[in-house]
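[audit] Reproducing an earlier prediction to check determinism. Same input, same settings, fresh worker. If the tokens differ from the archived copy the diff job will pick it up downstream; this log only records the rerun itself.
[audit] input (262 residues):
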Amino acid sequence: MRIARFSIDGNVAFGAVEGESPPGTTDGLVLDIIKGIPFADFELSGTKVPLSKVRLLPPVLPNKVVGIGRNYADHAKELGNEVPDVPVAFFKPSTSVIGPGDSIAYPSFSQEVHYEAELAVVIGRMCREVPRERARDVILGYTCANDITARDVQQREKQWARAKGFDSSCPLGPWVETDLDPSDLTIQCTVNGEQRQLGRTTDMVRSIEDLIVHISEAMTLLPGDVILTGTPAGVGPLNVGDEVAVTIEGIGTLTNKVIKRG
């Protein structure tokens, strides 16, 4: 099931996305409005709205986004880094999250902002100290993410908080796909229609199960929390006016434009 979060006539709701559409369009897609929330038992209302008539929002509002750095060997290599012995974890605050079609505001304190296409894991229930064999049980589903990074700031400052946590640095969407095997998916990033990244989740150094175990050893994960699983090689700069799109096989495409921060 594809679960979207959307607004219409000033109201916010979740809905199940139904139908098929040509790439890059929402033609033919409708939302069956969900009674309740997707983190508990819910029913489809049967009330359907064309997707073209709503505004898609970030599919979840996470309490926290936990990013994992250098989880693709080729990406670590392209930036002159070794693959770490243990996963490198960092946070992106809830204020960094934006949805499909929202603008990425180029931060005034950086001159080198990069895209990073990533598979995002959405947690479905509260959990901690999750054993590896139960890791899939705590997952609601998967969505596309773009770990926007102020690369010059990341290299200059020992902590990554400002470089990866500024406002609008975490686009998520367009929806959460709940019925998906994430082990071998294509991840692609384009800028202004030109392919910049192309990788597969099979190239992850550490699996999604291993990441959930590692993170939940230290902290409680809440429904709606998001784990960013790392980016393939091919990261590079964005400029004001660019349109950046992340496409993940089996999920869809997340598109955002870069604007000057006002």
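[audit] rerun output stored. Observation attached for the diff report: The CA atoms of residues 83 and 116 lie 17 Å apart.
[audit] end
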